[in-house]
Design brief:
The structure is a single chain. The chain is α/β, with parallel strands linked by helices. The chain has one domain (about 45-240, about 305-495): 3-Layer(aba) Sandwich (Alkaline Phosphatase, subunit A). The protein is built from 13 helices and 13 strands. A hairpin with a 4-residue loop joins β2 and β3. It starts with 16 loop residues before the first helix and ends in a 9-residue tail after the last helix.
Length: about 500
Amino acid sequence: MSSNSRPAGPACGRIARRAFLADYGMGFTGMALGAMLASDGRLRASQTEDPLTRPVAPPAKAKSVIWIFLSGGYSHVETFDPKPALNEHAGKTFDKTPFENPVHSPLHKKRFRSVPAEEVNVRDVYPIIYPMQVGWKKYGENGIEITDWWPHLAQRVDDLCFVRNMWTTDNDHAAENQIHTGRHRLDEVQPSIGSWASYGLGALNENLPKFVVLGGPTRTDTRASIDAYYLGPQYCGVPLTLDPSNPLPFGSRNSSQTSEMQEREYELIGELNGLAAVEYPEDDELRARIRAYELAYRMQAAVPEAIDFNKETAETLQRYGLDREETKLAGQRLLAARRLIERGVRFVQVFPSPYGVWDSHQKLKENHTKLCATIDLPVAGLIADLKERGLLDETLVVFCTEFGRTPGLEQRAGGIDGRDHHPNGFTIWLAGGGVKRGYVHGATDELGYHALGDGHYVTDLHATVLHLLGLQPQALEIPGRKRLDIDRGQVITDILA
């Protein structure tokens, strides 16, 4: 299936005003309905399972998730997995080092799935080793290595939990969807991790969506990263802007309509729907539609307040870098994420930088130096802020990208100073609710090529997040949509606190 193909139905983030309430907006109260069902004790699970044998959900360690995604693929070896061997053997080919040639490893074919034919694909097999473009040091009680591009985050290392043996199978940017859905672009699409969390959890605040997106989706062909597909549009991520006067595109009332006029309109709609509910008392979809109007109306007041920074102290604004031009964009989105989870939003997906900017095929040193400086302070500020407010224990922070960068020098188009896409091994990190702190799990080989051991496919991260939210991945499916084992993933038990 091509990256642009999808089942029939509305696309998240691409809706007309009239469709907002009629379809997508009514989906908002699919969320509200889900909260009603959860409060009634009805767990989201396959209705075909025997309740006596259904897997028991684990106790929740986190209430909410802030999922930070850096689009384009940051270099793992120049961020959180430094490799001295790259400097020692710079300029050599893989077969001239004392290490096994990683291209010949059985892991290469086992995990790698290229869309182009193998004989024409050279994207991850560049043979000339490219040295690290930045220095590194050890930080924290356990001496965790972080490169010099992350001076602020390095000071928070004792709060972070690194997973250095992630892998995926797509070597192009459809991997941005893959890390959120678990599926390669050639396979049937699946709901995103945020949608599964929304589907499985009740609401903490019925005035706000359970799944909010800041800064994305980055392009129309990346909408899968926030989409719910067959779960229904009510479980899609809800994109918000950071303009307090219009945070809900297509969700605010017309300028010609007063609040009193709109309130009367909703009252009439409620009465008409109430009459229909009497005639069709078992119609859950109708109940959801009724709640949709109510939620959409309440959101008009709740959302602007949630993203209004006027009551934040100058110290807090500086902590997130809102006083600096280079960090302002990421800082605003991350501060808004904190405010949203503080008000009961379950899953906030943050794109702190534009689409693909981390994709450093050329001028890696120049690009990563600049880009790390836009993210480092705000992310460190978020961790510190959550911790000081007592929110870190109940909030899970995930920091990830779609893949790493090649240990070899990219030579396409005469390249001399960059790295290509590298799905075979890369690093992500987590912090907060239910994970170890100041800890490193897993590793790549000496050259940063392969995730060692079994490694962790991207849905292992999904399974871990759902587990920490108190959800059982095996129970998260609906009749007629049997999920595969790879869709469910395996919890990374070693990182659990």
